[in-house]
Design brief:
By secondary structure, the protein is of the alpha/beta class. It has a single domain, classed as Rossmann fold (3-Layer(aba) Sandwich). The protein is 35% helix and 18% strand. The chain has eleven helices and eleven strands. The chain has a seven-stranded mixed beta sheet, sandwiched between helices. It has a two-stranded parallel sheet with strand order 7-8. The longest helix is centred in the last third of the chain and has 20 residues. The chain is globular.
Length: 371
């Protein structure tokens, strides 16, 4: 049975509590690992969308491990037309979260059966720092092209998006794909993206409730590991913004990422890239998700959906000449064949009471009501 709007509000409020609690504990990598076990136990394999459905597949990496992906489609999915392919990357400071948390975006983009959304469960920095997440994102992008016909995706309309760290990973992926020259991306949606490992005016001495300077510094430390940041790690370090895809984004004025997002969008604009951008006065990080029932959050979700529809009508990019329908001459193509019905490598079920103290006042029984 599909969830009601009331159920959706309840779930979003519960997820907000979990992630706020998670953000309170990013100072310890062991606590981060515990929070990831909790979110896995709550969310992995459970799709809470009201207007979309999800199935899982697995992609084999070059090292033999598997990358789990979620494929979100309309409730009434049909295969009688080619659809926009949307690669969506979840947020969480590159260190927490899972792709099922973004069911709301799945509902937003695939409800009318005009798009297929692919969400990779990319490796997070509590286990493997940069460039693991980017490697997984690019592997997923290649897999989408290789499997475009089977998935019902129009290979000339590949979109990439994500929120927060997922937005930063989106920006990194579009730069990387442009530089590699193997796959063309038609449009990107990095929402309030995490772009700069260096302090800006708004990320310095920021004490906002959801994401602040301390959390930001720790998250970048985990993500960079022992490496110095380059432009694919921290996309604000990009110096060439030409030939990047048309871009939509928004950010709140209390968000630590305000300055880096504003600078990124300005650089795109000055390089001749079409941009759609809006700032929301007095709003903090991820307010579209964490203030789900707020009128401003409803407005920005409607605006995001409108921008997506505009992009579907206007932005297309043919794949390079070596792309052939039904196949792709990519050197690692042998490693992007789906594996069905295989247990996820990373998913682990744990007893909730092990970490119950970290999720005070979360009614887990009610949370699981949809099963």
């Amino acid at each position: 049975m599909a969830m009601s709007e009331k159920d959706t509000r309840y779930v979003m409020n519960s997820l907000s509590k979990i992630y706020v609690k998670a953000l309170d504990n990013v100072d310890s990598i062991d606590k981060v690992k515990k929070m990831n076990k909790l979110t896995d136990s709550l969310l992995v394999g459970r799709w809470l969308g009201r207007k979309s459905k999800m199935r899982q597949e697995y992609i084999q990496r070059l090292d033999g491990t598997s990358l789990r992906i979620c494929i979100a489609t309309a409730k009434q999915d049909t295969n009688n037309h080619k659809k926009t392919g949307v690669l969506w990357l979840h947020g969480g400071g590159y260190c927490i979260g899972t792709c099922e948390q973004d069911f709301m975006y799945g509902d937003m983009f695939v409800e009318d059966d005009s798009a297929v959304m692919i969400l990779p469960d990319y490796r997070k920095s509590d286990e493997t720092p940069y460039p693991a997440a980017l490697d997984d994102a690019y592997l997923t992008l290649v897999w989408m092209i290789v499997n475009a016909e089977r998935l019902g995706i129009n290979p000339s309309q590949i979109f990439v998006g994500g929120e927060s760290a997922g937005g930063g990973l989106c920006a990194a992926l579009t730069s990387f794909a442009r530089d590699e020259g193997e796959i063309n991306i038609a449009f990107q949606m990095p929402l309030y993206p995490m772009l700069d490992d260096r302090h800006t005016k708004t990320s310095s001495n920021n004490n906002a409730m959801i994401w602040d300077t301390k959390r930001n510094d720790i998250a970048w430390k985990y993500y960079k590991g022992d490496r110095e940041a380059d432009k694919y790690c921290a996309p604000a370090r990009e110096t060439n913004y030409s030939n990047l895809p048309p871009t939509y984004s928004f950010v709140g004025t209390l968000d630590p990422f305000l300055d880096e997002v504003k600078t990124y969008m300005r650089n795109l604009y000055e390089a001749g890239v079409e941009v759609m951008y809006r700032e929301y006065e007095g709003k903090e990080h991820a307010f579209d998700l964490l203030e789900y029932n707020n009128s401003c959050a409803k407005h920005v979700r409607a605006l995001t959906k409108k921008a997506f529809k505009y992009a579907q009508e206007n932005y297309f990019k043919q794949q390079p000449n070596d792309y052939v329908e039904g196949g792709f001459d990519y050197e690692h193509s042998a490693y992007v064949v789906s594996e069905f019905d295989k247990a996820a490598d990373r998913t682990s079920r744990i007893e909730i009471d092990e970490i119950n103290d970290m999720v005070d006042q979360i009614d887990l029984d009610r949370f699981f009501h949809n099963e």
